[in-house]
Amino acid sequence: SQKIEQNSEALNIQEGKTATLTCNYTNYSPAYLQWYRQDPGRGPVFLLLIRENEKEKRKERLKVTFDTTLKQSLFHITASQPADSATYLCALSDYKLSFGAGTTVTVRA
Amino acid sequence: KAGVTQTPRYLIKTRGQQVTLSCSPISGHRSVSWYQQTPGQGLQFLFEYFSETQRNKGNFPGRFSGRQFSNSRSEMNVSTLELGDSALYLCASSLAPREKNTEAFFGQGTRLTVV
Fold first, then answer.
1. What is the pLDDT of residues A50-79, one digit of tens each?
2. A29-49 pLDDT, tens digit each
3. B23-50 as b/e, with b when 16 or more CB fall inside 10 Å?
4. What is the pLDDT of residue A81?
5. Cβ <8 Å between A49 and B92
6. How would you label B89-111 residue by residue, b for 16+ Cβ within 10 Å and e otherwise?
7. B108 CB contacts (<8 Å, ≥6 apart)?
8. Over 70: is that where the pLDDT of B97 sits?
């Protein structure tokens, strides 16, 4: 069966550092992968979408890579700020979004 | 542009009752998907509606049903509620059907508690 794993439940980093989150998947060949941010008590907010033929995508301080050979996506937040503290979800995209469990990032000032 | 609106925000129901949740998508969006979020299972796909037709369904019992109206507003219904149905129910709207892989815009969710 399909499995999506995000590397850790929680990540604590110092303000200004780069946070790197990992999303691994098995038994799946998605053409697209998406990343969302979710704050407590709120719905997920779309951040980035990357296609299988794209190696890297950037948006402001965010960067996503997609390696279909390794079946892995990396999500980077550079120059992190306390306002980046949230849960980040990766989602494989076809007729539905299949989400990982999420990684909760806490940025310390 | 108004976002996705879900009502009500909070609900408390008793086991055995039924409940109806409502979702108004972003204006112009015709695809509405529903997800259940629990601490143990995370976000799970329930079903998707596009142009009043259910296009896909997740692995949930028949107690979970939905519909979409001509104005794209959607409702989901859960009958014979069980304690395990306690969750945050999220609605997501998209411009195109999900297989087009467009981004999804989520509402704030309805927090359902079954006692």
1. 998 898 999 999 999 999 899 999 999 999
2. 887 899 999 999 899 999 999
3. bbbbeebbbbbbbbbeeeebbbbbbbbb
4. 97
5. no
6. bbbbbbeebbbebbbbbbbbbbb
7. A41, A42, A43, B6, B9
8. yes
* Cα B38–chain centre separation: 14
**8 A C-beta contact, residue B112 and residue B84:** no
Structure tokens at A62: 């965010």
Total length of chain B:
115
CB contact under 8 A, A97 and B108: no
Cis peptide before B8, with omega less than 30 degrees from 0? yes
Under an 8 A CB cutoff, do B98 and A95 touch?
yes
Beta strands in chain B (DSSP E): 5-7, 10-13, 19-24, 31-38, 42-50, 53-57, 64-68, 74-78, 87-94, 105-106, 110-114
Residue B98 pLDDT more than 70?
no
CA B31 to chain centre: 12
Chain A hits for B36, CB-CB cut-off 8 Å, are none
The order of strands in the sheet holding A62-67 is A3-6, A19-26, A72-77, A62-67, A56-59
